Amino acid sequence: LTIFLFPSSHICFSIAHTLLFWPGPIETSHPLGPVTLLVWTHPFHRRQDLPDCYELFHISGCALTDDRREYAHADAVVIHHRDVVLGSDELPPEPRPSAQKWIWMNYESPSHTPQLWQLEGVFNFTLSYRTDSDIFLPYGYLIPRTHGTRSSLGRRAHLLHRPSNKDLRRPHLVAWVISNWSETHARVAFYYQLRRYIDVDVFGRAGQPMEDSSKGSVVRLLGRYQFYLALENSLHTDYITEKLWNAVQAGAVPVVLGPDRKNYERFLPPEAFIHVDDFPTVRGLARYLLMLKRNPLLLRRHLDWRGDYALYRPVMWSEHYCLACKTTRRGRGRTQVVRDLTKWFYS
Ligand SMILES: *[C@@H]1O[C@H](CO)[C@@H](O)[C@H](O)[C@H]1NC(C)=O
Ligand SMILES: *[C@@H]1O[C@H](CO)[C@@H](O)[C@H](O)[C@H]1NC(C)=O
């Protein structure tokens, strides 16, 4: 078993395909004093209160601020990509204080990340869903139960369970929640094919309205379905979003369209999802889903893994800031520049 430890974050990987949780030692004393992290813009200009990193994540020595007057003595500045490239805001002023780190934060896929080329050689760290970011935090991840008790996993971890008999005979078959319908998306082409063979209940702006669109209500809805179409808007390395984790949380088997199967297996056991590439035809996939519906014992194979895991879904954006702060403190005194941002992000 080889474990790749991400030194900048509290997560590591095992090539046995599951993400392991690695909280790291709780650090209490910092000879160099706390780190000040300036949040340059609140993502999409939606203001949020800044978190207490120690209380929420046991990360100490962090002073977070969104007050730009702190710029001159901030150790790091977090800059959300979209807010500075679309002209609504500018990058911080140059020359920057020496030793200050600029952190590029982005949770959109490359297809929806405009004007990257403008930002070559500007940043010192990357913060994104990509596993090879300097600061890596995915949309969700699994924690093996053996790795902690209920209380050490924290309040925000969702314990998953082996399926009950009721879970194997849910009243509805396949759901899809879609807010941005575009005929150019691979996922829409896939849907057109799939619905020739199997009923798909479509929700969201393009289908039946949701009661409300909060995360909780999607999970509640999916709790009545056996399968959920977790189809990404574009296909890129590690770009696996909350769609997948909504299904996992609700105990619906995700049918995924996104990066390839091997990439998903970095995040989930192989049987925990059905990949559209697993079948040579969409018809073959549809038949498989119908067959599972008739054979609860076979369906169980896709759900039994749940007994060994808890699901963790990082809070946007508190955890991102606190992790950025932790990495900044560890990298104090070191110089690092992000070159080839575009090439890397598209790879
Ligand atoms: C919706 O999809 C289109 C086509 O890919 C894209 O240009 C647009 O940015 C998307 N909108 C949102 C809100 O994601
Ligand atoms: C951060 O990146 C800038 C721009 O490339 C560079 O000039 C600076 O030396 C870097 N600073 C640190 C502390 O890494």
UniProtKB/TrEMBL annotation:
It comes from the Eukaryota. InterPro entries: Glyco_tran_10_C, Glyco_tran_10_N, Glyco_trans_10, GT10-like_C_sf. It is an enzyme of class 2 (transferase). It is a single-pass type II membrane protein. Residues 35-140 form the Fucosyltransferase N-terminal domain. One of its GO terms (biological process) is inflammatory response. Transmembrane segments: none annotated. One of its GO terms (molecular function) is 4-galactosyl-N-acetylglucosaminide 3-alpha-L-fucosyltransferase activity. Keywords: Endoplasmic reticulum, Glycoprotein, Glycosyltransferase, Golgi apparatus, Inflammatory response, Membrane, Signal-anchor, Transferase, Transmembrane, Transmembrane helix. Its EC number is 2.4.1.-. Residues 170-344 form the Fucosyltransferase C-terminal domain. Protein O-fucosyltransferase that specifically catalyzes O-fucosylation of serine or threonine residues in EMI domains of target proteins. Attaches fucose through an O-glycosidic linkage. O-fucosylation of EMI domain-containing proteins may be required for facilitating protein folding and secretion. Belongs to the glycosyltransferase 10 family. This is Fucosyltransferase. It comes from Cynoglossus semilaevis.
